[in-house]
């Protein structure tokens, strides 16, 4: 699971001497990596959460709670959840005629938007799925979106597996256009 958070929230998520992020990791049993050194000066930072689906959702929910508390303390208003997803998988989140995304919105009582395809380039093949609602509902939506992304990712790997016979030694993910260097973790741990 990869999230995008405002740079000014990163300090609150990490906490004094890493205390908050350690607590989130202990409570959720998921590993949380804040990529604060990437894109220095950018307004948003990526956070990668590793673990089983339930633990990732728990960590995501805790991060949202910390962000809301920080927003309340600084009078920033409502927060939203931003999930990063590979462009190849976005169509399956939206669904035919928007059916999948509409169903997730109805079931979780959230508002979900997906960034434009114009926002991607050869250096960044990820799009942003923005979820708005209560923390509880945003966490439910994250769980459903992540499940769909994971399922789509695994289906793509199965489709690519037979092709790997034609290219011995080449990892199946290398055949997908990921925009990542070899050896990088997959988009969904």
Automatic annotation (TrEMBL):
One of its GO terms (molecular function) is RNA binding. It comes from the Eukaryota. One of its GO terms (biological process) is regulation of gene expression. Residues 1-68, 77-150 form the K Homology domain. Keywords: Repeat, RNA-binding. InterPro entries: KH_dom (IPR004087), KH_dom_type_1 (IPR004088), KH_dom_type_1_sf (IPR036612). The keyword RNA-binding applies. Gene3D superfamilies: K Homology domain, type 1. This is K Homology domain-containing protein. It comes from Pectinophora gossypiella.
């Amino acid at each position: 699971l990869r999230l995008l958070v405002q740079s000014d929230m990163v300090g609150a998520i990490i906490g004094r001497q890493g205390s908050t992020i350690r607590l989130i990791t202990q409570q959720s049993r998921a590993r949380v990596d804040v990529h604060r050194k990437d894109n220095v000066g950018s307004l948003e930072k990526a956070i990668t959460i590793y673990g089983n689906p339930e633990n990732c959702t728990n960590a995501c929910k805790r991060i949202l709670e910390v962000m809301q508390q920080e927003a309340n303390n600084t009078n920033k208003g409502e927060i939203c959840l931003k999930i990063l997803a590979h462009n190849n998988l976005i169509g399956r989140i939206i669904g035919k005629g928007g059916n999948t995304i509409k169903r997730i919105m109805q079931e979780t009582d959230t508002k979900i938007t997906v960034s434009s395809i114009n926002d991607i380039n050869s250096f960044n093949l990820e799009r942003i799925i923005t979820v708005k609602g209560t923390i509880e509902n945003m966490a439910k939506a994250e769980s459903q979106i992540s499940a769909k992304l994971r399922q789509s990712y695994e289906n793509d790997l199965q489709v690519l597996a037979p092709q790997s016979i034609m290219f011995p030694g080449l990892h199946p993910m290398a055949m997908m256009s990921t925009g990542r260097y070899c050896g990088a973790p997959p988009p969904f741990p």
